[in-house]
């Protein structure tokens, strides 16, 4: 299968997964919120959020492992692939044990008056915290296996495991209605078990399928490679700490000023944003190995072109759904949830605006990873992202409304976009003019068409499920505008070729 066809196939597989997982996940959130109640749901997401500040390790480290595996696949060096995998597995096993210890020590301080949790639920919250720590351990040690799957572009198995995970989460949510035990504790324990099940699936499949993962290919500890992996992962980790620390740190700051109940609104906003982000991150996951392999092959021109294509299509894929959601958010939340917590609508809108802005350089983030020169990039961009926390604290201390922290979130995200373009110009030779011509300028007219379609829809129609019509009309009009004004000549040729193949297959059938 050619590289282009593999990307298209994997994208199709992962979008099929999205159709299943997003609907189930949103329905599961409604069930859990109803079963736990706003206070316990807020407590769980606050505790899980503190843990997730370290669970970012899965994504950060998976990117590191997958980068090296893809890089050496591009060089066709099987010996180094085995070394990378086994040294990475040892590294993550040690790291997982260390993080478990850190979490236990940190818990002594977090639950000693720092977090604003009702006193009658403190013991239950602390118990959930312990089980979330176990969850993090299995997330960490599954990283090398996940990185191997992505490096081999095996998105089908990744999609299967993800679907199993969301089905298990739905089963757990439904079980809350029938359990006679404390619902918060039951939910925390069962959710922690999902990561261990996923780890078993990933480990068994990779060891049986890929040569670099087989037990007889252990080549001993390579101290130089361990240091290289550790340094790369460390800076990658710093960037992820700042990104997710910003997201989860805002949950803690909101909790300190407004209590646990506002965390429900913030959790819903992150849930909506996270589910819609699947649309663009799915495409990025399909194209990411090709970006890394192009750099391994020494073809930086192709690597940068792919990263710009990923940025543009990531923006389009998210905007087509997110912009109608922004316009229809009040209606959508009332249909989705039985009770909509205060500030949920404003929080959701601002999170989606920030997510759309982030997509402008989503492919450039992968390009920076591919070069391996990430020290200054991660230190600067990550440092700017974490500034959101002192900014939020100051705004709330001065008496601004709760949603003001999300306004700051959007401003910081826009600043980070500008910095990413600057650094890719410095470390990889990205032409700013080419980026503006190929990405930003091509996005303007389709985005204007999208905004006009949404405004006309909400102005001319008024009924409960209007948002479905708005989304459909937006998708049709914007897709036509993208094909007319949003594509470069080479991109239009690729899409035309794909459509031609589909027509020929249909005609043949």
TrEMBL record:
<feature type="transmembrane region" description="Helical">
    <location>
        <begin position="376"/>
        <end position="396"/>
    </location>
</feature>
<keyword id="KW-1133">Transmembrane helix</keyword>
<feature type="transmembrane region" description="Helical">
    <location>
        <begin position="343"/>
        <end position="364"/>
    </location>
</feature>
<feature type="transmembrane region" description="Helical">
    <location>
        <begin position="157"/>
        <end position="178"/>
    </location>
</feature>
<feature type="transmembrane region" description="Helical">
    <location>
        <begin position="126"/>
        <end position="145"/>
    </location>
</feature>
<feature type="transmembrane region" description="Helical">
    <location>
        <begin position="309"/>
        <end position="327"/>
    </location>
</feature>
<feature type="transmembrane region" description="Helical">
    <location>
        <begin position="12"/>
        <end position="33"/>
    </location>
</feature>
<keyword id="KW-0812">Transmembrane</keyword>
<dbReference type="InterPro" id="IPR050833">
    <property type="entry name" value="Poly_Biosynth_Transport"/>
</dbReference>
<dbReference type="Pfam" id="PF01554">
    <property type="entry name" value="MatE"/>
</dbReference>
<feature type="transmembrane region" description="Helical">
    <location>
        <begin position="402"/>
        <end position="423"/>
    </location>
</feature>
<feature type="transmembrane region" description="Helical">
    <location>
        <begin position="444"/>
        <end position="463"/>
    </location>
</feature>
<keyword id="KW-0472">Membrane</keyword>
<protein>
    <recommendedName>
        <fullName>Na+-driven multidrug efflux pump</fullName>
    </recommendedName>
</protein>
<keyword id="KW-1003">Cell membrane</keyword>
<dbReference type="InterPro" id="IPR002528">
    <property type="entry name" value="MATE_fam"/>
</dbReference>
<feature type="transmembrane region" description="Helical">
    <location>
        <begin position="469"/>
        <end position="487"/>
    </location>
</feature>
<feature type="transmembrane region" description="Helical">
    <location>
        <begin position="39"/>
        <end position="57"/>
    </location>
</feature>
<feature type="transmembrane region" description="Helical">
    <location>
        <begin position="89"/>
        <end position="111"/>
    </location>
</feature>
<feature type="transmembrane region" description="Helical">
    <location>
        <begin position="184"/>
        <end position="208"/>
    </location>
</feature>
């Amino acid at each position: 299968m050619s590289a282009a066809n593999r990307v298209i196939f994997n994208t199709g597989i992962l979008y099929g997964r999205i159709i299943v997982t997003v609907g189930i996940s949103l329905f599961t959130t409604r069930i859990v919120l109803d079963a736990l109640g706003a206070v316990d749901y807020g407590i769980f997401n606050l505790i899980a959020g503190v843990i997730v500040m370290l669970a970012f390790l899965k994504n950060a480290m998976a990117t590191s492992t997958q980068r090296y595996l893809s890089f050496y696949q591009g060089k066709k060096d099987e010996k180094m692939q085995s070394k990378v995998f086994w040294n990475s597995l040892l590294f993550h096993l040690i790291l997982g044990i260390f993080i478990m210890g850190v979490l236990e020590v940190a818990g002594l301080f977090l639950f000693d008056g720092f977090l604003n949790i009702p006193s009658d639920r403190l013991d239950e919250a602390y118990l959930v915290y312990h089980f979330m720590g176990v969850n993090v351990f299995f997330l960490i040690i599954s990283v090398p296996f996940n990185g191997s799957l992505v490096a081999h572009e095996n998105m089908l198995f990744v999609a299967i495991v993800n679907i199993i995970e969301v089905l298990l989460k739905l089963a757990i949510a439904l079980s809350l209605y029938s359990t006679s035990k404390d619902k918060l504790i039951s939910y925390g324990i069962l959710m922690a078990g999902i990561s261990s099940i996923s780890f078993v699936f990933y480990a068994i499949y990779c060891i049986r399928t890929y040569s670099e993962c087989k037990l007889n290919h252990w080549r001993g500890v390579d101290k130089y490679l361990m240091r290289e992996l550790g340094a790369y992962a460390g800076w990658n980790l710093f960037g992820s700490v700042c990104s997710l620390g910003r997201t989860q740190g805002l949950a803690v700051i909101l909790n300190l000023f407004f209590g646990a109940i506002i965390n429900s609104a913030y959790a819903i906003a992150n849930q909506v944003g996270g589910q819609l982000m699947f649309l663009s991150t799915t495409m990025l996951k399909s194209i990411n190995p090709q970006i890394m392999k192009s750099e391994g092959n020494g073809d930086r021109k192709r690597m940068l072109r792919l990263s710009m294509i990923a940025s543009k299509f990531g923006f389009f894929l998210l905007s087509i759904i997110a912009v109608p959601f922004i316009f229809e958010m009040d209606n959508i939340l009332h249909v989705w949830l039985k009770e909509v917590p205060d500030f949920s609508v404003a929080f959701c809108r601002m999170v989606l605006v920030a997510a759309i802005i982030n997509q402008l350089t989503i492919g450039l983030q992968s390009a920076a990873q591919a070069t391996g020169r990430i020290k200054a990039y991660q230190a600067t961009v990550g440092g700017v992202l974490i500034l959101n926390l002192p900014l939020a604290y100051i705004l709330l201390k001065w008496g601004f409304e709760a949603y003001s922290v999300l306004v700051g979130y959007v401003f910081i995200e826009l600043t980070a976009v500008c910095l990413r373009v600057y650094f890719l110009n410095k470390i990889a030779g990205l032409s700013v003019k080419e980026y503006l011509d190929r990405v930003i300028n091509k996005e303007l007219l389709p985005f204007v068409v999208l905004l006009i379609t949404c405004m006309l829809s909400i102005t001319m129609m008024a009924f409960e499920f209007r948002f479905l019509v708005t989304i459909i009309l937006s998708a049709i009009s914007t897709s036509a505008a993208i094909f007319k004004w949003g594509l470069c000549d080479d991109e239009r040729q690729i899409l035309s070729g794909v459509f031609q193949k589909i027509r020929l297959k249909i005609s043949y059938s």
